[in-house]
Design brief:
This protein is α+β, with helices and mostly antiparallel strands and 273 residues long. The chain is built from 11 helices and 8 strands. The strands form 2 sheets. Strands 3-2-1-5-4 form a 5-stranded antiparallel sheet. It has a 3-stranded antiparallel sheet with strand order 6-7-8. The C terminus is likely disordered.
Length: 273
């Protein structure tokens, strides 16, 4: 395997929403902490101190990366709740991990009380890591997604049934009504005579989702979503709402649609409930 292939695989590696860039950042942060030797680690020999901080930071980062997607989906659009929930979940888990490191590295006895003692220190480091991660992601992934987001227009099979004003407008959603389809665009809506199955075939190359037996929605039209009892409701950019049935809810939740929407529209303020 050539070096180029190895590098390509490394750059595509993901754990949750984290990748190689975050891992490199953790290694550098571990080197920094080993150098300044905070929290009483200055007395440890240099090699052991570096090993301790690398294991602490990288192990903690892997724990955080495994937890992050859970709260990213649940609190999309509400960064404060997302950060608070992530800190509350990751801090005790990382404290347990860090409390075990002296046992393996320095041969210290196991102490359950060490976990409680470490919580404030772990919390402070977690906050620093989250801030650094946010800054790194923002620098590497600027809001160009907003500028380069592909416009979603109705496919030709639907567009030729629309008046020119609607055919030129961005597509929002398609709703089946008896033997007709309601084509919703940014310029308004119109009823066209067409089967939903034929429309779905034409819409398949576009960036969107079937959310209900009678609905298809463009990804970029979604402003917020609320879940209740296994079903959902999408708030769309034209002020309308689209249902998400139980049949399609699981598939929709498993996609990364929420993160993409948040990037495309940073003004989104609603969040998953």
């Amino acid at each position: 395997m050539t070096a180029a292939i190895v590098i390509k695989h490394l750059m595509t590696f993901r754990l949750g929403r984290s990748g190689v860039i975050e891992l490199v950042g953790l290694v550098l942060f571990g080197l920094f902490l080993a150098t300044i030797a905070p929290f009483g680690t200055a007395a440890a020999p240099g090699a052991f101190r570096h090993l301790y901080w690398q294991l602490a930071v990288i192990g903690g980062g892997l724990i955080a990366a495994s937890i992050e997607p859970i709260f990213a989906r649940r609190f999309t659009g509400n960064p404060l709740l997302f950060v608070l929930a992530q800190l509350a979940a990751m801090t005790p888990a990382i404290a347990v991990w860090v409390s075990l490191l002296p046992v393996f590295i320095f041969g210290e006895p196991v102490s359950t009380g060490r976990i409680l003692q470490l919580l404030p220190d772990v919390l402070s480091i977690n906050i620093a890591v989250l801030v650094l991660t946010w800054l790194a992601r923002k620098a590497l992934n600027p809001s160009k997604a907003l500028r380069t987001a592909p416009e979603v227009f109705a496919p030709l099979a639907i567009r030729r049934k629309l008046p020119p004003r609607l055919a030129r407008a961005r597509l929002i959603a398609v709703e089946a009504e008896d033997h007709y389809l309601c084509i919703r665009t940014e310029a308004g809506s119109a009823l066209v005579a067409m089967r939903l199955g034929d429309a779905l075939d034409a819409l398949s190359p576009l960036d969107g989702f079937r959310t209900h037996r009678s609905w298809w929605v463009a990804r970029t039209a979604v402003q917020a979503v609320r879940w209740k009892g296994g079903r959902g409701t999408l708030a769309l950019s034209d002020g309308s709402s689209a249902p998400v049935s139980r049949t399609y809810a699981a598939g929709l939740k498993d996609t990364d649609w929420a993160a993409t929407v948040a990037q495309l529209d940073p003004s989104v303020s609603d969040h998953l409930q």
